[in-house]
Write a structure and sequence with these properties.
3 helices, 11 strands, 2 domains, Alpha-Beta Plaits, 9-stranded mixed sheet, alpha+beta
Length: 182
């Protein structure tokens, strides 16, 4: 039976267990998780937060991380500005990025979710409103969600991965994890 860890990765933490080659020590998974033999199934950028899955089974790891399996990943995205009907349609249809068209995304404008405070906080501008989207993609290009929202004129301010497939962050605080057997 495979071990799976659902980790709520805080902002500023690397999605790896060591930080080799950096002149300054940065927070890594080893600062939060002591579970030999598990490895991240995919990545989450240092400036993104939320669900990171770690497992000890190579097949499961591939099924989660490999874009060929098109496992849905849902994000809560705080954006600068208010989404227009055209911007949402463009995200739903797929966006042209410098590395090609994205697959269509499921996206909707949502009310501000009840999330933990981020440290450091998001910058606020009095003259520019911010909004929230729930966005689900089925691929995993480098910084894809940030690039997609920027391409439609809505820069990302905060990015929280809420779920991967059926696994979610429900009741897992930042820096905490839950172990399950699969």
């Amino acid at each position: 039976m495979a071990r799976l860890i659902l980790f709520n990765k805080p902002f500023g933490v690397l999605s790896q267990f060591t930080d080799r080659g950096s002149p300054t020590a940065r927070a890594t998974l080893s600062d939060f998780i002591d579970a030999p033999g598990v490895y991240p199934a995919g990545r989450l950028d240092r400036d993104s937060e939320g669900l990171l899955l770690l497992c000890d089974d190579g097949r499961l790891q591939a099924r989660i991380a490999d874009p060929r399996f098109k496992m849905p990943k849902t994000y809560l995205v705080q954006i600068e500005g208010e989404p227009t009907t055209d911007a949402l349609r463009n995200l739903r249809d797929g966006v042209r990025l410098n590395d090609g068209m994205t697959l269509p995304a499921a996206v909707e404008a949502i009310d501000e979710p009840d999330l933990w405070l981020r440290d450091p906080p998001i910058r606020q501008r009095k003259s520019i409103p911010d909004s929230w989207l729930q966005l689900t993609i089925r691929e995993g290009r480098n910084r894809q969600v940030r690039r997609m929202t920027a391409a439609v004129g809505l820069p990302t301010l905060r990015l929280v991965r809420w779920s991967i497939g059926d696994w979610t962050l429900d009741d897992i605080a930042p820096g905490q994890f839950r172990k399950i057997a699969v």
